[in-house]
Write a structure and sequence with these properties.
elongated; mainly alpha; about 65% helix
Length: about 80
C-alpha cells in the first residue's frame, strides 16, 4: 500500500500515465480510500489548469508602463519588505 507521501509524489510528477500498471493501480486504490489525497489531486488539477491559463494570458508582452508601476508600488514606504 502506498503512503500519502508516495501518492502525492506520483501525482506531482505528472507522468502517472507513463508509470507501470502496478504503480497506477496502487495510486488509484489509495485515492479510492483516502479523502485527503483525493482533495490534493483535485487541488493539483485546479492549480495546473489555472497556471496554464495564466501562462496563456501572459504570453503576450506586458504593457509598457507595467515595470514603472511595479517599481513605484514596491518603493512605497507602506509596502512590506522581505527580510
Amino acid at each position: 500500500m502506498m503512503t500519502c507521501r508516495d501518492v502525492a509524489l506520483q501525482l506531482s510528477r505528472d507522468d502517472l500515465n507513463r508509470q507501470a500498471l502496478m504503480t497506477r493501480a496502487s495510486v488509484a486504490l489509495h485515492l479510492a480510500m483516502c479523502r485527503h489525497c483525493r482533495a490534493f489531486a483535485r487541488q493539483l488539477t485546479w492549480l495546473t489548469r489555472a497556471s496554464r491559463q495564466l501562462g496563456d494570458a501572459l504570453a503576450g508582452e506586458l504593457p509598457s508602463a507595467f515595470e514603472a508601476r511595479l517599481q513605484a508600488r514596491l518603493s512605497r514606504p507602506d509596502h512590506p519588505r522581505q527580510p
